[in-house]
Amino acid sequence: MSNNEPVKQGAHSQRFTLHTEADTKRLAEQLAALSLSGSVWLAGDLGAGKTTLTRYWLQALGHIGAVKSPTYTLVEPYSIEQSDGSTNSVYHADLYRLQDPEELSFIGFDEYLDEPNALVIIEWASRADSYLPPPAMFIDMTQSNSLHSDNKESRQVEIRLSKVGQAQGLDLSNLKI
Question: Residue 173 in contact with residue 23, Cβ under 8 Å?
Fold first, then answer.
């Protein structure tokens, strides 16, 4: 098994090592192909690659243009036009600066979560886990301490489906890096 193959195979859980930004892009393209709706919780320390993964994911979903970090705005909305003329709503949230989960109700965050077929990608969701409904998927990213050949740190990524994601019929077993 090479370093890029999943450590653990399964329909509900996968683990990968991302050595390059191209690996991150490949993973994002495969996540975009899952037809996922609801929320995804991205966890990881600062610099773990959460926003980079989200940028590539939005691009793979068809977004053209810049992807701004929602660190200060809390939420960046994207309306992505599909080839059939319909649009898909994707919301990228970063709750790192959130002081109180109740702040989410003041900005109308519930509307994003209630929108049918919308995807809400949430960085630092743990800051509001008591407020948020369960996600469809958890993605945990950590930086590895070891450097590889070009002196860049690799990232460990674990993807897990919640019961919500399992009920959507999602299957992670085809994800490969």
Answer: no
> Distance of CA 28 to CAs 18, 59, 96, 111, Å?
11, 9, 22, 25
Element (H, E) at 30: helix 21-32
The length of the chain in residues reads 177
Reading the block at residue 12, the tokens are: 């509900």
Distance of CA 126 to the CA centre of its chain: 14
Other CB atoms within 10 Å distance of the CB of residue 136: 22
- pLDDT, averaged in runs of 10, over the chain (177 residues): 45 92 95 93 90 95 90 91 88 94 92 94 94 96 70 85 93 90
Asked whether the beta carbons of 121 and 54 are under 8 A apart, the reply is yes
Instruction: Name the CA radius of gyration of the chain, rounded.
Output: 16
At 148 the pLDDT is 53
SS3 category, 11: coil
Give the strand order in the sheet containing 75-81.
13-18, 153-161, 137-147, 38-43, 119-123, 87-94, 75-81
Q: How many CB atoms lie within 10 A of CB 108?
A: 10
CA angle 162, 24, 17 (to 5 degrees): 75
Largest CA distance in the chain: 49
DSSP code of residue 117:
T
